[in-house]
């Protein structure tokens, strides 16, 4: 069971589906935007028809899932739009199985460019704040991976985190 929150046009969902399509897995997606739901539903029409992909509109702050549901959760370029990051991180942890893994991705270079060009009207893409939020929300084994562009600036960052077992 895999969940993506903030799936946007459905690029990550498509990649997740490729990995589960021949097995028993299921991919779930939640996005707060009706326009994004429609876009991803169109893109993943066949996958949804197969019954292995389920998309819905919703807020990461209140997920429509039972606790201990997911083995993997991922979200890319999303956490900095959450109005209450601690509440959202706790909510994601609630629906994770004890051995689950959450992967956060951020296009650091892209976000910096958008911010520099003055197009980022809201959102807080502060990775240090996000890491502290994960610790406060009860995650452990938090690992940060910075992928550098030609060995210089950080282009992408991934953060891996699991529910605290205590
Ligand atoms: C910058 S887009 C990223 C889309 C996609 N993950 C990607 O990287 O291509 C951010 C997405 O997060 C969604 N989003 C923002 N806040 C959300 C929330 N509180 N709950 C669910 N989705 C949210 C937006 O609607 C949008 O689709």
UniProtKB/TrEMBL annotation:
<dbReference type="GO" id="GO:0003838">
    <property type="term" value="F:sterol 24-C-methyltransferase activity"/>
</dbReference>
<dbReference type="InterPro" id="IPR029063">
    <property type="entry name" value="SAM-dependent_MTases_sf"/>
</dbReference>
<comment type="similarity">
    <text>Belongs to the class I-like SAM-binding methyltransferase superfamily. Erg6/SMT family.</text>
</comment>
<dbReference type="GO" id="GO:0005783">
    <property type="term" value="C:endoplasmic reticulum"/>
</dbReference>
<dbReference type="GO" id="GO:0016126">
    <property type="term" value="P:sterol biosynthetic process"/>
</dbReference>
<dbReference type="Pfam" id="PF08241">
    <property type="entry name" value="Methyltransf_11"/>
</dbReference>
<feature type="domain" description="Methyltransferase type 11">
    <location>
        <begin position="3"/>
        <end position="103"/>
    </location>
</feature>
<dbReference type="InterPro" id="IPR050447">
    <property type="entry name" value="Erg6_SMT_methyltransf"/>
</dbReference>
<protein>
    <recommendedName>
        <fullName>Methyltransferase type 11 domain-containing protein</fullName>
    </recommendedName>
</protein>
<dbReference type="InterPro" id="IPR013216">
    <property type="entry name" value="Methyltransf_11"/>
</dbReference>
<keyword id="KW-0808">Transferase</keyword>
